[in-house]
Amino acid sequence: MRRSSANRGLSRSHADDIRLWRSVSPWGVGLLVVAGLALPFAMSDFQSSVAVYAGIAAIAGIGLNLLTGFTGQVSLGHAAFLGVGAYTAAYLGTELELPLVVWLPGAALAGGLVGGVIGPFALRLRGNYLAIVTIGLVFIAQYVFESWTSVTGGLNGRSVTSPTEVGPVDVEGLEVFGRTLTRDQGWFYLVWLLVGFVALTTKNLVRSRVGLAMQAVRDRDRAAEAIGVRLARYKVLAFVLSSSLGAAAGALHASYQRFIHPSEFSLYLSITYIAIIGVGGIGIVFGGVVGALFITAIPRLIEEISPSIPFVSTGTGDDGFITVFSLNQAIFGLLIITFLVLEPRGLAAMWLRVRLYFRAWPFSY
Amino acid sequence: MTDFLQLTFAGLALGARYALVALGFVVIYKATGVINFAQGAFVALGAYLAFNFHQTWGIPFFLAVVMAVLAGALIGAGTERAVLHRMVGRPVFAVIMITVGILFVLNEVITWIWGQSSLNLGDPWGQDKVTVGDVVLPVRDLWTLVLAGLVLTGFFAFFRYSSLGLAMRAAAMDQEAAMARGVDVKLVFTLSWAIAAGVAALAGITLAAGPAALSPGIWLIALAAFPAMILGGLDSPAGAVVGGLVIGVVQTLTAGYQPDDVPWLGESFYVIMPYVLMIVVLMVRPYGLFGTKEVQRL
């Protein structure tokens, strides 16, 4: 069905109302897919690996957005779920040598279970109290990761050598036109295929009855309850979905990086995820992906160009010099400040505003 | 028994520091409704400023402490004026993220200026100890309690009796009504940041006292002060003090007894004890011990 350009963005019928995208043509999607398929060939292995990490962050970011952006439950505990997923995948894949089709869903399931256990606790708490309690969750999870040495390797960390075959195809040695792809290229396809799947599913979910209920809980939970939304069910469900996506991302992270250490799943990681959805766009599925790309790519970019910035030392910090790590942190902080002062609703909102401007042109709104 | 008294005293001293940091959280939260993640950076900043005044510039220690607290407060107020002022009325979530950004920036500025290595604050207390009965009390901890006590009394007197304190309480209760009555709410915001940064600075100084105890990592105390704040109730200054002391004592007692008595919990369980305690208390009282219950309407 083709709409006249005057109607673009306006809902005129039920069919319009339930469209997944209001303004994207099949051509645009096709172009995006082709570009995605071609991208690994245009990128260096380093760039591919940055893209893989960004994709992993996007999956967890979409998960957190579902909980925080769509259900309104601010959680600083996402790192704990990534950790659960990472260690579950390490155990299933490396110890028990189960294939990818088992360890990835297994990790998501484990994350979902933990989220389902913790969700009911969160029912009693609201707003800021919940946010701080989830900080506690991160510390407790980290303590478990450090202490349960038989599975996690404790403070020595552990290596992860999980199998990466999907059926007859090995992600780490894909062959296209007789040419074997590098590990990073293979992972790029796997991860971004999953990002596409997760984003599409989530986008559909938030338009469904379940998603609308979640958003009602976010906007005013008592009013939602009064019109028949079961608070407990949807809050816990949001926790379960968000933590299983987080855990799946953790599983991918562990297997791609081949090594994990408890210190990775710290409050810092949780804050990074909050930054990802904050900078990307709260309550916009697309925002999780944009934020992940931005937040993951910026530090790597700074690392790349740091040798040419004065006062930056690559060694340990001497007086008057700033290490690459420090510079990264400082710039990360500055970016968060600048972005949110300029557009508190995030990058995706910026995009939506620009799009709206052109759609409504020549009128200002 | 001696052990118990010893640990309790150490716990109170630790708790006094938590109380100072938590009070800073509460003051800002009451005034602006924002949880200030940058509080930890002000803890470290205060300690490093005291180091700079005392060790680098040779100012007498106690004067340096006063100057560091004032300078910390000034920087806190400046941060509010420069950044957070623009965010009044914006989504709280964005404002909180901005305080996280400030934390990152300030922490790196600190390591940039003073380096990563541990430093000597050069306090006059060092490792000195006083013995009362069988209990050995470090002088450092005694002074911590005295200083924290003074500052907390000063704060509560200011909050209760001064007209500015009254303005702060009025603004916390109802911003618009306070404005209509001529309260300068902007001043209240700035002032609350100044107070928060000032008490954080004092917490940092007492924490950094002792040999080579000043390192950039001391900002982490702010994370342990979260449970103290939540335990007492987010919007209760008195609750912050009680919460701080309770968390401090429970944590040191756990560190003292748990490894022998409950060994299966692991060796450093005391590190996460504040969070466990916080979660348990919140399950029973979702708004902390003294927090205001949120009244909800449809």
Search tags:
heterodimer; A: 365 residues; mainly alpha; two-stranded antiparallel ribbon; 15 helices; 8 strands; globular; B: 298 residues; two-stranded antiparallel sheet; 11 helices; 2 strands
**Biggest sheet of chain A, strands in spatial order?**
1-6
Taking Cα atoms only, what radius of gyration of chain A do you get, to the nearest Å?
21 Å
Biggest sheet of chain A: strands, sense, closure? 2 strands, antiparallel
The share of residues in extended strands of chain B comes to under 5%
Tell me about the largest β-sheet of chain B.
Answer: 2 strands, antiparallel
Oligomeric form of this entry?
A: heterodimer
Cα distance spanning the termini of chain A: 26 Å
Description:
The complex is a heterodimer of chains A (365) and B (298). Helices cover 68% and strands 4% of the residues of chain A. With 365 residues, chain A is mainly alpha-helical. In chain A, the strands form four sheets. Chain A has a two-stranded antiparallel ribbon. In chain A, strands 2-3 form a two-stranded antiparallel sheet. In chain A, α3 (45-70) runs parallel beside α8, α3 (45-70) packs antiparallel against α13 (285-305) and α4 (78-95) packs parallel to α6 (127-147). With 298 residues, chain B is mostly helical. In chain B, α2 (39-56) packs parallel to α4 (92-114) and α3 (61-82) runs antiparallel to α8. The longest helix of chain B has 31 residues, at 2-32. The interface between A and B is large, with 46 and 51 residues.
List the helices and strands and how they pair.
The complex is a heterodimer of chains A (about 375) and B (about 300).
Chain A: H1 14-17, H2 26-42, H3 45-70, H4 78-95, H5 100-122, H6 127-147, H7 149-152, E1 158-159, E2 165-166, E3 169-170, E4 175-176, E5 179-180, H8 183-207, H9 209-219, H10 221-226, H11 231-257, E6 259-260, H12 267-280, H13 285-305, E7 312-313, E8 322-323, H14 324-342, H15 347-360
Parallel strand pairs in A: 7-8
Antiparallel strand pairs in A: 1-6, 2-3, 4-5
Helix pairs in contact in A: 2-8, 3-8, 3-11, 3-12, 3-13, 4-5, 4-6, 4-11, 5-11, 8-9, 9-11, 12-13, 13-14
Chain B: H1 2-32, H2 39-56, H3 61-82, H4 92-114, E1 129-132, E2 135-138, H5 139-161, H6 163-173, H7 175-180, H8 185-208, H9 221-232, H10 237-261, H11 273-284
Helix pairs in contact in B: 1-5, 1-8, 1-9, 1-10, 2-3, 2-4, 2-8, 3-8, 5-6, 5-8, 6-8, 9-10, 9-11
